[in-house]
Design brief:
Blueprint lengths: L6 H4 L9 E6 L6 H10 L3 E6 L2 H10 L10 E4 L2 E4 L1 H11 L6 H29 L7 H26 L13 H16 L8 H10 L6 H6 L3 H24 L4 H9 L7 E6 L1
Helix pairs in contact: 2-4, 2-7, 5-6, 5-7, 6-8, 7-8, 10-11
Length: 275
């Protein structure tokens, strides 16, 4: 069995055996819930964020031996865990953020499912807005983004309205469901804040999450959504320019493609150690 080659290996860095490794595409994806759990619980981990879509797809293909499933990925105790829901649920149980008792835990899981469905509804539009690839923005907005936001935020608002008026979804305190909802609310608010005016209780939860003292160090260190959007757009423009150059030099197209694919992964991968 061939060994898996992770970005931190390619970059020549050594990772402490006790440090967890979180790998995802573009910061503020669904893996952000997991980052917030780590930050709140003061758990050290290394965050590998791949911003370039071509390098991301290449990395996924090369690491199929990591096991079935999709990104994000968490390497924990030498084992690979896939998917933000599974990772978030495991971390929440480990660090006391899954809810108090069976009922709250089931409700928190339900909220996570709603947010997962919301993400599927808006992901195409979001990737287009972030410059990952080109889309018909008006068509995608009308057909999937706006209906998805209204449908699933209405569900989240119902849960939020049933909780304590000065707290989070549940009376026992903050859970990973609050982290996930706050992250999604912030993302949609950057793109189309006018769609969120009805969801006042979800907004209040989001504000309380981002005011938590335990999160301030991490929140102040992470890039803004505007910075992430600019980064992905620059990478896409760079690829588009290289593709044009290759097409103009048909005789040298193969050489140009090989040169492009041989770019060091370190240009597109950001590894951050959090303590």
């Amino acid at each position: 069995m061939e060994p898996m080659l992770f970005p931190w290996m390619l970059n020549g860095r050594k990772r402490p055996a006790s440090t967890e490794l979180l790998i995802s595409f573009c910061q503020r994806d669904l893996a952000e819930m997991c980052r917030l759990i780590f930050a709140y619980s003061k758990i050290p981990y290394e965050d590998i964020t791949i911003y370039d879509i071509k390098q991301f797809l290449k990395f996924k293909e090369e690491n199929e031996k990591a096991g079935p499933g999709d990104f994000p990925m968490l390497e924990w105790n030498g084992k690979m865990i896939h998917g933000s829901d599974a990772i978030g649920r495991m971390l929440a149980k480990m660090y006391g953020l899954s809810g108090a008792g069976i009922y709250e835990q089931a409700q928190a899981d339900t909220i996570i499912g709603i947010i997962s469905n919301l993400n599927h509804a808006i992901i195409e539009y979001t990737k287009g807005a972030f410059g990952v690839y080109s889309i018909d923005k008006e068509k995608v907005y009308t057909e999937t983004f706006e209906p998805g936001v209204k449908k699933y935020f209405a569900m989240l608002e119902k849960f939020a309205s049933q909780g304590p008026q000065d707290g989070f979804f549940f009376s026992s305190g903050v859970t990973y469901a609050d982290f996930a909802a706050a992250n999604m609310f912030q993302l949609v608010a950057i793109l189309h804040p006018e769609l969120l005016t009805e969801y006042k209780n979800v907004k209040s939860i989001s504000q309380r999450v981002f005011a938590l003292p335990q999160l301030q160090k991490y929140l102040n260190s992470r890039p803004s959504l505007q910075e992430i959007m600019e980064k992905t757009r620059m990478l896409k423009n760079s690829h588009d320019e290289k593709r044009i150059q290759c097409s103009k030099k048909s005789k040298k197209a193969k050489v140009c493609m090989l040169q492009q694919m041989s770019l060091s992964l370190s240009h597109f991968v950001k590894g951050t150690e959090h303590e």
